[in-house]
Amino acid sequence: MSNGAQRFSASAPGKVNLHLGVGEARSDGYHDLVSVFQAVDRRETVTLVVQDAPPVSTGSVVTGMTTTFGVRCPEEHIDAPFNLAWRAVDAVVDEYRRSGAEVVTALPPVHIEVDKQVFVAGGMAGGSADAAAALVAADAYLAEFAGSELGRDTLHRLAAQLGADVPFSLMGGTALGTGRGDELVEMLTRGSTHWVFLNPKVGIPTGQAFGLLDDLRHNDPALVPRLGTATVARALTRGDAHELGRAMHNDLEAAATTMRPILVEILAFAGALPGVARSMVSGSGPTIALLCRDAAAAEQVLGQVRERYPDYESFGATGPSPGAQAAQ
Ligand code: C5P
Hints:
Elements: E1 7-25, E2 31-50, E3 62-69, H1 84-98, E4 110-116, H2 126-145, H3 152-162, H4 166-171, E5 174-178, E6 183-186, E7 193-199, H5 206-219, H6 230-238, H7 241-247, E8 249-250, H8 253-259, H9 262-271, E9 276-281, E10 288-292, H10 295-308, E11 313-319, E12 325-327
Parallel strand pairs: 1-8, 3-4
Antiparallel strand pairs: 1-2, 1-12, 2-4, 2-5, 5-6, 7-10, 7-11, 9-10
Helix pairs in contact: 1-2, 1-3, 2-3, 5-8, 6-7
Cytidine-5'-monophosphate (C5P) binds at residues 29-31, 33, 163-165, 180-181, 206-207, 210.
């Protein structure tokens, strides 16, 4: 890549579910959710690097992709056209070409760089954050080379097509999500939340976790969907970590702990640490989210968790954090 190449960067947050109620399976393979999302300041950065090559009018403008890992690198190769960041850039360019602009400008090719700080396949929507950041970076690139951008509403529609969590990664903050989790309403919060995230080395494919929950519910009538969010909403407006900790709930935790029993032990150990208001599986897991009393407690908890589980990845983060936005 030549020095001085034009670059379009954006960052987007990882997320934790403060509440995840899973309803009925739908005919489209998804489940209806009632989710309270919170974005945290552990952020992915996506950069489009303009290539010194002839502009293209058809097909993908993406020539390739390079991910740099601040977390463990997955075994499989992810710098490929199926990657959500790559698909997000293609979606923005396709939308522009379909948009009815009288003259569709040929666009210069780009190489995508991803700085990955959120766990891969961890239940923190890291891949969705890559997609959201790529949407915003690609819109800035369009503004420069096509002279018009798609704007936030269109990006939100494209986000929902890319995946159920992508709209929230775009929006950030704290939000109630219904439908597949992609119909969002902002929620009121007071103050900040302080977290430690711990990722044991056990993968949980999201689709399998949802499927197992359906199976478990067949045999255990106690596993009813918990769809109410009033207590979480109240705790958020009060800004009290312990009240929020008591209100947090995740229907998918039963599936995650059944698939990976080691999580039960980690949840119990971490939940008993001084300064931890709640330990819970994040989304479909396997990441364990530890809500801490305050910033000082989170720092101590991170140290204790690293000492007990030196082979697992962990980091601290604070919420809420803004959604996808342009970066330098
Ligand atoms: O949207 P995403 O590709 O991240 O979802 C992965 C899988 O998780 C889906 O294919 C589906 O099996 C499951 N899922 C679901 N209901 C949701 C979100 C995801 O069943 N609301």
